[in-house]
Design goal:
By secondary structure, this protein is mainly alpha-helical. Helices cover about 75% and strands about 0% of the residues. Helix 2 runs antiparallel to helix 3.
Length: about 120
């Protein structure tokens, strides 16, 4: 027979709330930093326009290359760590190594995107 146990219910709800709260916090922090960056760029541009000065050129020129290299490094690090862990235990690497390929292949895609854009711009 099932009995109502308040401490079990509290533990279950606490886990759900903390799990969802963590992802909500990460999403809020990303939104906050992106919004603040856009707002600061907007205020800087308005101030330059008021002063009659020229607007600066885009400083984030090859952001996809930088992001691609970082993601490749993270994916390669995860992949190598999982391989080394499997080698030290004597197990063969299984489905968990697929996790390492997500950032690795995403990074390779961003590098490919960068190279395609660079080719279309005439090698600049």
């Amino acid at each position: 027979m099932w009995r109502f146990n308040a401490s079990d219910m509290f533990g279950m709800f606490a886990g759900i709330i903390l799990g969802l709260g963590f992802f909500a916090l990460v999403a809020y922090l990303v939104y906050l930093f992106v919004y603040k960056r856009i707002q600061m760029n907007h205020e800087m541009r308005l101030e330059l326009i008021k002063q009659g000065r020229d607007l600066p050129a885009e400083t984030e020129r090859f952001g996809s290359l930088k992001a691609g290299i970082v993601l490749c490094a993270v994916g390669l690090g995860l992949f190598l760590s999982l391989l080394l862990e499997a080698h030290s235990n004597g197990d063969t690497p299984g489905g968990e190594t697929v996790i390492a390929f997500v950032p690795l292949l995403t990074g390779l895609g961003l590098i490919g995107f960068h190279l395609a854009i660079r080719r279309n711009l005439g090698g600049k």
